[in-house]
Design brief:
six-stranded mixed sheet, 6 strands, Rossmann fold, 38% helix, single chain
Length: 224
């Protein structure tokens, strides 16, 4: 599930983006070495998780990427060689729904989505929408903050217990992942050398990568 490369990213691409991004605020973009490592490790791990779950866009499996970061992840898959037509970016609508038909996807990717919802009710609505757009054996891949953000109280922690509440009866596999963002961004040009070492320490990992398999969820719901 988790990718722990010597340096989770393309050094050449990072250098090009660093040079191209000098006119922007580098802390919050891929132009920052540490942030580049943070995002690339997350995207590599989510892609590996989809493959391990048996999801294959090249075979026609439809993957929905929810929200802005879900769209960025799908762009990453396209750059990695996966075909575009089955990779579909969608946004959460004002009423909490997803603009997709019932059972129209094989997998849903929730990347930094649940933690940004204003309430537990809003999170539960998105979980219901995931079940609606997926078949009974569908897969939800969720990468989100597992720790509260003291600098932004609008971001809520999404741990394994919260995922179990949102997807009762589903089989959840999870692992902590990615270095604390402020620490990652502070590494600067040293990130290629020290990011992997810091990220190996579980207390310094800020996010949770989880796979929720709905087959067990469907079996747990009694027929009427």
């Amino acid at each position: 599930m988790v990718a722990r490369a010597a340096y989770p990213g393309d050094l050449g691409a990072a250098l090009r983006e660093f040079r191209e991004g000098r006119r922007r605020e580098p802390r919050w973009t891929r132009a920052n070495w540490g942030h580049h490592a943070f995002l690339t490790q997350a995207f590599e791990s989510m892609a590996r998780t989809l493959r391990e779950a048996g999801v294959d866009p090249s075979a026609g499996d439809v993957v929905l990427g929810v929200g802005p970061n879900g769209a960025r992840f799908l762009d990453y898959l396209r750059r990695s060689g996966d075909p575009g037509p089955t990779l579909r970016a969608v946004d959460v609508q004002p009423d909490g729904t997803l603009p997709a038909a019932d059972g129209s996807a094989v997998a849903v990717v929730l990347s930094l989505v649940l933690s940004e919802q204003p309430s537990p009710v809003a999170r539960a609505q998105i979980a219901r929408e995931c079940r609606r757009v997926l078949p009974p054996d569908g897969v939800v891949v969720c990468w989100d903050a597992r720790l509260p953000n003291p600098r932004n109280r609008a971001i809520g922690a999404v741990g394994r217990r919260e995922l179990a509440r949102l997807f009762p009866g589903g089989r959840i596999e999870s692992a902590s992942l990615t270095l604390l963002p402020p620490l990652a961004r502070s590494l600067g040009p040293a990130a290629p050398f020290v990011y992997p070492a810091f990220e190996l320490l579980p207390p310094l990992r800020s996010h949770l990568l989880a796979t929720i398999r709905l087959r067990e969820l469907a079996a747990a719901v009694p027929s009427r």
